[in-house]
TrEMBL record:
A Pfam family that the UniProt record links to this protein: Tim17
The protein's name in its UniProt record: PXMP4 protein
Family annotation (InterPro entries): Pmp4 (IPR019531)
Superkingdom of the source species: Eukaryota
Record-level GO cellular component terms: peroxisomal membrane
Length: 213
């Protein structure tokens, strides 16, 4: 037992020494990026899938748990693959040119996005829409910072909020098929299911009655 313990400590010491080597930093960063992508993807998707599945999906408990596991795995895998691809391409470009320039980041992310998130499925669609909204805000702030557009005299957020909500409810009411299924489900629950009730039970306690009254 003592021999195996000494071997493990020696192996651990060697691994820690390897991690301190600067010449391996780029390759090790790619590996850790894969790890962080997988963990972060699971942390983000699992609770979201849990809530959305039990709120809006029908089926047995086994089917619901399987759906949650599949969504969590897909998000975790894709994010891990993307970080791995992005950091790998970033390191390769930097090594080839001897330095890192801003275009390297854009090109590496474009290639990673095409390869990993190019498949039009519900998971990828949600991720892309999440990023798109933040990109629009980020580009707006950058345009102001760079002087491309003047600094607003008043906070534009109330106007943005009004336009976003006005547009999304108009789409929901008259062009529902253009919205993502999960958003349709959420809005149906909020704005349509609240129009229907039969008695106090499905007015306050439940959204819909489950009996045959």
């Amino acid at each position: 037992m003592a021999g195996s313990g000494d071997s493990f400590r020696a192996l651990l010491h060697a691994a820690n020494a390897l991690l301190q080597q600067r010449r391996y930093h780029a390759a090790l960063a790619v590996i850790k990026g894969f790890r962080n992508g997988a963990v972060y993807g699971a942390k983000i998707r699992a609770p979201h899938a849990l809530v959305m599945t039990f709120l809006f999906k029908s089926g047995s408990l086994r089917e619901k748990l399987k759906s949650i596991a599949q969504a969590t795995y897909a998000h975790s895998r894709n994010l891990a693959y993307f970080v791995f691809t992005y950091k790998g391409l970033l390191a390769a470009q930097s090594r080839l040119q001897g330095k890192r320039i801003p275009f390297h980041s854009f090109l590496a992310a474009c290639i990673g996005g095409w390869l990993v998130f190019g498949d039009n499925n519900p998971i990828n669609s949600q991720i892309i829409m999440y990023l798109l909204s933040r990109i629009l805000f980020g580009l707006s702030r950058l345009a102001v910072d760079k002087g491309y557009i003047p600094q607003p005299k008043q906070d534009p957020f109330p106007l943005v909020a009004a336009l976003v909500w006005g547009t999304v409810l108009w789409l929901f009411e008259y062009h529902r098929e253009t919205l993502q299924p999960s958003l349709q489900s959420s809005m149906t629950y909020l704005y349509e299911d609240s129009e229907v009730w039969h008695d106090l039970s499905d007015f306050l306690l439940y959204n819909k009655r489950t009996d045959s009254k």
